[in-house]
Amino acid sequence: MLQGKVVVITGSGQGIGKHAAKTFAQQKAKVVIADFNLDLAKKTAAEISEVTESLAIHTDVRSEDSVKKMIDEVIRRFGQIDVMMNNAAIVPHFAWNIPRWPLIADMPVEFWDRVIHTNLYGTFFGTKHALPHMMKRKSGHIINLYGGGGVRPGGAATYMVTKDGIRTFTRYVAEEVRDANICVITFSPRVPIATETAPEEALRRLPGPEILGPGFVLCAQLSMAQSGKCFAYENGKLVDELPREG
Q1: Res 245 pLDDT > 70
Q2: How far apart are CA 204 and CA 109, in angstroms?
Q3: Is residue 177 part of a domain?
Q4: Does residue 232 lie within any of the structural domains?
Q5: How many domains does the chain fold into?
Q6: Could you list the residue range(s) of the whole structural domain that residue 75 is in?
Q7: How does residue 26 score in pLDDT terms, banded at 50, 70 and 90?
């Protein structure tokens, strides 16, 4: 069903994004690895190219100009975008037993801005510039990433502001483009995940991105009746996901 479709994934040089890229590649979709780290993007794209057509593009999701240039390059190369996955984010990874983020009273505005611009603005820019190309074809899926962070101990406020904002953003954009037959949803990994950069102890203790299985592939096949909702992957299928605090 996804064979030949064009899938763009931000922050896909490693971690959850790379896992998603591999699952789409297994479906023979054409996969764009858009990442701030071009070396990682090229490495992942090279791995995927053994299975399907892929393209690595340096992208800074904090910059609207960078995101627009990436989208324009995808259109020049492939002529369309079928799935836009806004995955790039700064994540606290408290479950890795690393230092917690500053409390609000102690937080430098530069730290706040970096998280907000990467997580929230990045999702906005990716959605904004993918939508016109999907609207022309009256078809497309946008997958945004949700996440949880406990209230106590403190440190997760900035992250959850972005993730709750993304969830709200998704619900409202879904209605804006419903008549254009574009399905916009949020996906939650639900549990802490240890990616390649996690400490050895966390890698032994926590699941890796593979626990998400084909969750993103399933998201890219959802019907319009599901647009605006938030999902998680459980026991081989997508399930509704409630707002989370931990």
Answers
A1: no
A2: 35
A3: yes
A4: yes
A5: 1
A6: 6-240
A7: very high
pLDDT attached to residue 93: 75
pTM: 0.94
Report the pLDDT averaged over residues 40-55.
Answer: 96
Per-residue pLDDT at 246 = 46
244's CB contacts (< 8 A; 6+ apart) are 146, 147, 148, 188, 190
- Distance, CA of 182 to CA of 138 (rounded, Å): 7
For residue 184, give every residue at least 6 positions away whose Cβ sits within 8 Å of its Cβ, in sequence order, or none: 127, 141, 142, 144, 170, 173, 174, 177, 227, 228
Tell me, what's the pLDDT at 1?
85
Q: Residue 232 belongs to a domain with what CATH number?
A: 3.40.50.720
- Any domain includes 182: yes
Does residue 200 sit within a domain? yes
Strand order in the sheet with 83-86: 54-58, 30-35, 6-10, 83-86, 140-145, 182-187, 230-234, 237-240
DSSP state of 154: S
Catalytic center residues: 159
The SS3 call for residue 78 is helix
How buried is residue 67: exposed, middle or buried, by Cβ count under 10 Å (0-12/13-18/19+)? buried
